[in-house]
Amino acid sequence: SALADFNIATKLDPTDARTWNFRGNTHHALKKFDLAINDYSEALKLDPKYAMAWFNRGETYYITDKLDQAIGDLSESLIYDPKFMRAWYIRGMSYYYQSKYEPAIADLNEALALDPKNSDIYNSRGLNYYYMNKPELALADYTEAIRLDPKNVYAWVNRGHIYKNTGKIDLSLTDYTQALLYDDKNVDALYSRGTVYYFQGKFENALADFTAAQKIRPDDWELWSFRGDTYTKLGNYEPALKDYNESLRIKPGNVDVLASRGICYKKMGKFDLALKDFNEALRIKPNSVFALSNRGDLYLEQYKYDPAVKDYTEALNIDSKSFEPRNNRGNAFFYQKKYDLAISDYTMVLLLDPGFTSALHNRGNCYKALGKYSEALADYSKALSLNPVQPVTLRDRGDCYVLQYRYDSALNDFDEALRINPADTVVLNSRRPGLHEPEKF
């Protein structure tokens, strides 16, 4: 009815710029943005200094992602009304979406000078600092936004991102959960909290969050894929496959999802289907480290060491610091009895992650195979100092002690391994009675 009234008004007095502006607002509210822009343009023909019409058309351009036009109109608006906070704010956000963070911050500072208690402006300035890689400034702005408005869901979520990216996982979970107290349908908070739970190994919690987010946004391929990954981690392979298939229906040919489905097939023992997915992923993106590494894992599991090494090497040629292919190539070299090459890879892995006990253990096995028992013992002992509950490492260190005729030390390791896993037949065999009587051994 408002539109009908303004239609009549523009016919009765087509020279009134305000009437055209108001009709533009009505079209805007009805999401008829092209008609709104036409009305604002008509208003500006009649009154080129009409600040509100410049702003309204600029805001409409902003909403319709015509950012250059938005910036132009908002700049005109500010010429005629430099104290118009919303114009500074929207122009700042237009710069933000163009990744022009410095001018964005300058505009948001102007907006804050006019409205210093506006929580949304602090949150928006925080976003700019975040993408400028200034996490401390972003954190300060998000915190101030929350102080000014404790129900600012976006500020809670964004601060959660900062905490997550800086390794403060518990604080990130607290912030995502707080956001969901105010808006339990916030997909960003659900998705982000779900990913934190996933990487913490809390797969049931992750599954609940991804499922809740998926109900709200059923066409999000990432949610389907991540839930598929979660099902895979839980060993629920059939629902995982359904999720990967749905993700690929929404976004066909996604390389990471194809590779993830390949991993699922591999875990199900369906090696032909797994290989098909990895090959398809690499046909689409030949330099996918993720697909190359996982195809290498498939070959490794099938004892096909040469093609496994080839895939791992190709992955490392693309990304020399990639962790998984480096470690697994070391495993392949070990099985090929190329111990020096394996040691080189494990050493590189330990430079990337000095606390990776599997690499320490495996490098120890290589040294033991080469007869370098002191080096082997050093690696086993380092691994056990990081995680004492490793019966296999205890067993292998015990075997190394036997090779040095250090039977008491060997017995101590075998006994500890059996205390952890009394049914370990390999250890039981190693801990044979002769060790108590070395002269008979």
Task: Throw out a few tags for this protein.
441 residues; Serine Threonine Protein Phosphatase 5, Tetratricopeptide repeat; single chain; mainly alpha; 78% helix
Descriptive account of the structure:
With 441 residues, this protein is mostly helical. 78% of the residues lie in helices and 0% in strands. The chain contains 26 helices and no strands. Helix 10 packs antiparallel against helix 11, helix 15 runs antiparallel to helix 16 and helix 23 runs antiparallel to helix 24. The radius of gyration is 31 Å and the shape is elongated. The N and C termini lie far apart (102 Å).
How is the biggest beta sheet arranged?
none
- The CATH topology assignment of the domain at 1-116 is Serine Threonine Protein Phosphatase 5, Tetratricopeptide repeat
Mean pLDDT: 94
- Rounded to the nearest angstrom, the distance between the terminal CA atoms is 102 Å
Low-confidence stretches: none
Please, what is the CATH homologous superfamily of the domain at 1-116?
Tetratricopeptide repeat domain
State the order of secondary-structure elements, H for helix, E for strand.
HHHHHHHHHHHHHHHHHHHHHHHHHH
CATH class of the domain at 1-116: Mainly Alpha
Which range does the strand content fall in?
A: under 5%
Q: So how many helices? A: 26
What class, by secondary structure content?
mainly alpha
CATH A-level architecture of the domain at 1-116 = Alpha Horseshoe
Evaluate the radius of gyration: 31 Å
Shape: elongated
What is the tally of beta strands?
A: 0
Percent range of helical residues: over 70%
